[in-house]
Amino acid sequence: MSPLRRNTLGNHSARVWCVSPFPDNERVVSASHDGAVIVWNLRTMEEERRWDHERATAVAVSPDGKMVVSGGDDGALQLWDADSGDHLSGPWQQHENERRVWSVSWSPDGGRVASCSADDTLVIWNASSGEALLGPLQTEHKYVRAIAYCPKGRKVATGGHDSTIKIWNDDTGVLQVTLRGHTERVSSVAWTKCGSRIISGSVDRTVRVWDCLKEQTVHVIQHTGAINCIAVSDHVFATASADHTIHLWDLETYQRLDLDGSFELSKRDEAHCVALTADENTLVACTEKYQVYTFDIKEIVGGRLGRVGKAWDAIRHSRVVVAVYGMIVRVVKPLSFGFVQ
Questions:
Q1: Helix (H) or strand (E) holding 315
Q2: Looking at the chain, which terminus has fewer C-beta neighbours within 10 angstroms, N or C?
Q3: What digits encode the pLDDT tens for the residues 255-304?
Q4: Which overall architecture, per CATH, does domain 6-296 show?
């Protein structure tokens, strides 16, 4: 496969740390050290809105697409109206002043925001009032690099410099689970949509898939450089690495879907963050060299879904021989014993 068509939305004037898609699949917002938080239109490839947040490092769009929260090196969060452009609230200040907010995440119902900081704390905020509902809670990560709300709500996952992933109750602050397996600091965490698995990336150059109920790793993917970011959608997930690569993976089989060079980046550049639109048509990446890129992934994801669909069709329209120790017991239709597409 030749490199996918890459579009440049625009460039910041400093490192771009984070991107987050809107649920309408038509916009994305980026946060940069140049102090700009910019909303880009994916159809026109033009800047739609711009806000100022000094040395911005983190950004996330609310589940309904109506609000955007940003965090920065100032240790504060700001809340913005995505439609009017108004500044709604902030600065929210509970993390230590001038300690970087590394990551922000919305609860599934849009009522809460979780943030984590270089001060080793997490905070759960009331999205309407900006009041801290929980925290600052010391995580003992030494330095918290990543935070993500569970799609099922009521708990958040954090990753940090102690090489662990921790799962917390967002009401009580009780530590529920600690996942151990990485050998260096954890840089990214993301939940699968079912809420039972976490995918994490680390400076140890691995991506780990975790079964949260069993508290164990179920799959490991090896990169040749530190993992910067992971993004998860319904059927695929993306990884961005300091080895100058972005890869797309099948969420069921963990097979790599892109071939060498599909996501083309300069060998002098690397993606700090990647995001996937909800329709799985677009991958967005922001980079060390001030860029925000989009890649059309419809063909890759569509091919993956086509193969799955054909497999199920084959199952539905064939007969399966059930055998025990080489002896044929019966021939049955797959749907008669519970195969469901």
A1: helix 298-316
A2: C
A3: 999 865 568 787 889 999 999 999 999 999 999 999 999 999 998 888 66
A4: 7 Propeller (2.130)
